[in-house]
Amino acid sequence: MNSPLSNNGLGLLNRRNFLSSAAGIGLASLLSENTARATTQAIRPLIRPDNPLGSRPTHFAPKAKRVLVIFCSGAVSHLDSWDWKPQLLKMDGKPMPGAKENFLTFQGENGNLVRPLYDFKPRGQTGKMVSDLFPHLAAMADDLTFIHSMTAKSNTHGPAENQMSTGFIFDGFPSLGSWVSYALGSEAENLPAYVAIPDPRGVPQAGVNNWGNGFLPAVFQGTAFNSSRPIYNLARPEKVSVASDLASRDVLKFLNEKHLEKFTGDTELAARISSYELAAKMQLSVPEVSDLSKESATTLKAYGVDDPHPVKSGFAKNCLLARRLLERGVRCVKLYNGAYAMGEGIGNWDGHKKLKEQYDKHAPIFDQPSAALIRDLRQRGLLEDTLVVWCTEFGRMPTFQKGASGRDHNPQGFTVWMTGAGVKPGISYGSTDELGHKAVDKITTIYDLHATILHLMGLDHERLSYYHNGIDRRLTDVHGHVIQDILT
């Protein structure tokens, strides 16, 4: 039988045979693509409607069972904290090389380069250069994994916070913790899978977007409360007796379950019943986890709970609350430092006008409690399977703003760090240029950060998805690579 490429056995290619052959090649290619797509298709977790927060299996063996994200709102200056640039000392007071006249950034014209406002010193056995801004955390430099080449897509706080929390600069997308609880559920039967702990002074600029569920089912939204502000509408009204409350709850449960028997496919009703049951359990569990009175005097002192400064004491209590939530099986905790209700730089890290004056106030509030939290997790053995991530929405410029004593926004290069389960301690990954302006080596994106966090939790960021409006949505969109060099 002749080949489709032959004509009467002579090997000649006529028009009909060419089209037939091309169609065959196209079909083979299509089948190959479909096969490849099938092997990397999205994995959607199997969620029981009657127990949407039940624990679920990972894609592969995880290094971390839970994640703690510590977020400093307002954009901490990497140049005055973690990213040592000796060249900035040498060029203090000089114009930025290559910058045009009237060099403009987010808030306007920039002045000259300004040296780090805090002294840097070698720390620990690694000799890592960290500034005196955070002395307690600096002493832990051997335990931290620094990423000095992080970049963001926006130089505006709200969108940049959105990206750090959700992967997108726009509103309406699920936060990291929502994706994690959607994928894995929770090991805490009486507590939410995902808790956000706002700063004692208020919430970050993007507000609830930072812990929102976006288009994921509402059950995966973060539950926000802190040591001083309980969960709203959780307590029983004083005018309602315990007996009446329990009886009403039982009647409601009975009616819902009877309705569900008739409409077994009503997943929203099943999830609502589950939410009611969790809320009932939380009436007991949340007051218990928020009660710090059983903590030892040594622990309270280490965190700074007894500090006379009310904001530091409040943040210290929040840090202790974070540890108590993690040890009780909460899957994701987001701990916030800094809030926007008080104005630019006053209650947050947005140091445009008087950076050192403001940071001198903010750093003592943040430093001791955060370091105590990490040490406490380690001493209790929790850091072995807990991933801790410190981040901020972007960095700041190596120059001062013209006519001011502060640094403008800079998303082109800044620092985040990690510690705990699955990451190599005491290393630095990537770098910015000699002035700390732009990431130049091993440039890293927030997509990469999210992909790495999911990987350590046993999740493949390319396969974890949710079908929404005709699109398989991912936390990392169509981007992101796991940062393999920092993993154990």
From TrEMBL:
A family per Pfam: DUF1501
Domain of life assignment: Bacteria
InterPro entries named among the record's database cross-references: Alkaline_phosphatase_core_sf, DUF1501, TAT_signal
Database matches in SUPFAM superfamilies: Alkaline phosphatase-like
Name this polypeptide is given: Uncharacterized protein DUF1501
Source organism: Prosthecobacter fusiformis
